[in-house]
Amino acid sequence: MKTVLHHGKIYVERDAFAQAMLIEDGVIRAVGTDEEVLAAAGKDAEVIDCEGKTVIPGLNDSHQHMLGIGMRMAQVKISDVTSVDELVERTKRFIAEHPETCKNGINASGWNQDLFVDGKRVPNRHDLDRISTEIPIVLQRVCGHVAVTNTKVIEMLGLGPASPQFPGGTFEFGADGYPNGVFTENAVGYAKSVIPVYTEEQYESMFLSGMDYAVAHGITSVQSNDAGMAMDIPRALRMLHAVYDGGMGTLRYRHQVCCKTLADYEQFLASDEYKKRDELYDEWLTLGPLKLFKDGSLGARTALMRHEYHDDPGNYGVESLSDGLQEAFCAMADAHGMQVVTHVIGDAAVEKTINAYEKVLHGGKNPLRHALIHCQITDRPQLERIAKLGLLTYYQPIFLDYDIHTVYDRVGAELASTSYAFRTLEELGGPVAYSSDAPVENCNPFPNIYCAVTRQDKTGFPPEGLFPEERVDVETAIDAYTLGSAYAEFAEQVKGRIKPGYYADLVVLDHDIFTCAPRDIMDILPVLTMVGGKIAYKR
Q1: CB of 436 within 8 A of CB of 61?
Q2: Where in the sequence is the domain holding 218, given as residue range(s)?
Q3: Is 79 inside any structural domain?
Q4: What is the CATH number of the domain that holds 186?
Q5: How far is residue 172 CA from its own chain's centroid?
Q6: Dihedral angle computed from the Cα positions of residues 160, 164, 170 and 174, in that order, rounded to the nearest 10 degrees
Q7: How does pLDDT run across 25-74, given as a tens digit for each residue?
Q8: DSSP 127
């Protein structure tokens, strides 16, 4: 089957546009003028008129949590609550309206104390006890690195004044010496463990909902950490196989697999899933890297810093993974030829992870394309090291929408000036990919591109942008979201461009992203999303 898209403004590469393309068997066969492509297609081709609209390669989200997107859609919405009281009342109402869903407990995420108008304080167990004392309740902060629980969870975990801390995480104590319901980093997983998991059918339904939302916003590929995160590894792998074997996959999916211990990783490497990956996976469903967590988040003040937080003296953040264990993971991955991607936000986490990677590089090169996810707080020497070693960086420009308002308070002006250094790292030659970290942020790529181009929040603050010298142009942002993300998964020869030989993954936009006002980029939406030459979404 041949398909022609014509009468379009098709982005080929910087300063190069075409009118039409020919697609056959899911692959782009020709790109050129309307006359050239229509003549090459012949009479039997299906023809789609782009009506002069702009066409770009399909967006490739290099790090997110697809199942988490669907789970967030099925949970109580708490991302926009503006007070502790509203958090309590909205959750109470959700439980009342969904008694069967919540009868064994409730776990949701999205609150952000910096949006609260009643003192910007983190909730505690006493607040959540107003929701219920009968069922366990775990409400995670938007970043996922802090959670608050009711007293029921603390009782179910058997915690008391003398209880030891969990490795790589903490639970806080109140003035009465009893746990106050605030958990951080690895301890969050223990809090969530008391709530029964969903059935595989429920997980699958939520995953499909998340995938539908993604393609409707121009996402054609995701590199997603669900295995070992939202679900245990065997169940997650089994579910994804069922989705794709059943023909329900509408975008391309690459696993980022999270193993908590070396024993977990050894078990994974010994499994048929890993050893027979060439037989079990294809260009739609791919087994990708090992995913590690080195620290927490800036908003929760758990990102690992070399110097104490400016607005919290004595706090250097939380180290989720020890240096020794991190180096052991990297050595094991290197022995098996497996890529490693690591969550790093604070400058200490960045430094320690560069050091761990450097020990397994080959002749100073990075053939396995080990990567830094987030890489928010950096100084100039770190950026130069990252580029020199060829380490990949998966940036989330959309984080600026919130962090613009907190980064000075957290780390000070000097360190802030060399952080979120999108342009500097590109100019130094460091490979860069863009992503959303959804559901921490919305997976819609266009607000993300807007933040990269303007360095402003969604209201246009600050007018000149945060350190405007780090702004990038639209072409750079699109390339990072397409070709850069393809490079992150060793697919740059078949993804990320509209050229002959590349997958027919593309998006037709309702406005011209190259000529519209920067402020309008965030409002762009697809009118058509195509993956492998098939229409995955049409408005």
Answers
A1: yes
A2: 200-488
A3: no
A4: 3.10.310.70
A5: 28
A6: 30
A7: 999 999 999 999 999 999 999 999 999 999 999 999 999 999 999 999 99
A8: H
